[in-house]
Amino acid sequence: MPLACLTDFQAFARERLPKSTWDFIEGGADDSFTRDDNIAAFKRKLFVAKHRIRLRPRYLKNVVNVDTRTTIQGEEITAPICISPTGFHCLVWPDGEMSTARAAQAAGVCYITSTFATCALEDIAATAPRGLRWFQLYVHPDRQLSKQLVQRVESLGFRALVITVDVPKLGNRRHDIRNQLDLKLNLLLKDLHSPKERTSMPYFQMSPIDSSICWNDLSWLQSITRLPIILKGILTKEDAELAVKHNIHGIIVSNHGGRQLDDVLASIDALAEVVAAVKGKMEVYLDGGIRTGNDVLKALALGAKCVFLGRPILWGLAYKGEDGVKEVLNIIKNEFHTSMALTGCQSVAEINQDMIQFSRL
Q: Most buried one in 152, 160, 251, 284, CB count within 10 A?
């Protein structure tokens, strides 16, 4: 039976993957309230929700030629649906991030490669040379190591640097604790070492995240690269205003898929506040909870320039590698195309807040 929606891929991946791997991918922090709310916030079916987001379609409009294309940081993509940084793709498919990169290139969308990639950056770049790639960085306590890594990705053709800001330390992920997950037993990270060294460093033999990084350190990052810098993990107007003050190029509104601090806002609920705070001075994106084309439309109506998919990409990878990721992207792109047509939009530029309304439950 063909898989028809993103949750079909979720069900397949759950059956196929070992329990510890599934729990690592799906698990949230603490009670996983925020993980679940990311999805529920688009539909507002939880009894605790005060409002739900609904679409306001306009009819008798010519939608013969619906154009889903848009741009991010000046680069054209086929639809405002791209791939979030997630680590350890080799856990779910042998070719790991190389398969993901090829699928993103074929789909004409951006792929943010994680610091915790399990394929070498050179291999990822070589396997999809025409793909639009950004690189997600966890700043290492050894700043020289981070500098070398940033300059390396720039030389490999990555087009932006995404700094994850919501991990000064790892969240309390109970599933991984119960499973006694130890990634160093079967995974070696290929990129957290000097380019002159060809040996890899085991994940947990390092202290890979610098918990001291603060706003003033952004000027150092800006001094070592010409790449635009995007901050991932912003949820408040105060931090959005600071991002503007520090000349950042973009924000990804995100709560890390509910894997870091539980009981924070769902990403979609934080979006409007951040969009209002930046006052059009930078692009704002969103990840967390996107599962349908309607979800994409709602996020764009609330001011997101583009959305990024995390877990659904891993479900597709577990299903059929590169082809599975292509299927996931094609399904949600087609759903988004349908959503645009059925709400009367010919182009992404026409999507605006008048297309949604908030109704009380």
A: 251
**Model confidence pLDDT, tens digit, residues 309-321:** 999 999 999 999 9
- The active-site residue out of 140, 175, 256, 337 is 256
Q: In this structure, what token pair is assigned to residue 12?
A: 């397949």
Is 256 tagged catalytic?
yes
**Cβ neighbours around 239 below 10 Å, total:** 16
For the whole model, what pTM was predicted? 0.90
Q: What are 310's two structure tokens?
A: 């995390």
Would the annotation count 136 as a binding residue?
yes
Find all residues with CB under 8 Å of 323, minimum gap 6, and list them. Answer: 103
Query: If DSSP codes are grouped into helix, strand and coil, which group holds residue 16?
Result: helix
User: Is residue 47's pLDDT more than 60?
Assistant: no
Is 289 annotated among the ligand-binding residues?
yes
For 251-304, how does the pLDDT look when each residue is reduced to its tens digit (9 = 90+)? Answer: 999 999 888 898 999 999 999 999 999 999 999 999 999 999 999 999 999 999
CA torsion angle for 83, 85, 91, 96 (degrees, to 10)?
A: 60
What HEC string does 199-213 produce? CCEEHHHCCCCCCCC
Q: How far, in Å, CA of 322 to CA of 100, rounded?
A: 6
288 is an annotated ligand-binding site residue = yes
Per-position DSSP letters for 211-254, written without gaps between them: TT--GGGHHHHHHH--S-EEEEEE-SHHHHHHHHHTT-SEEEE-
What is the per-residue pLDDT for 51?
64
Task: For 307, list phi and psi in degrees, rounded to 5.
Answer: -115, 155
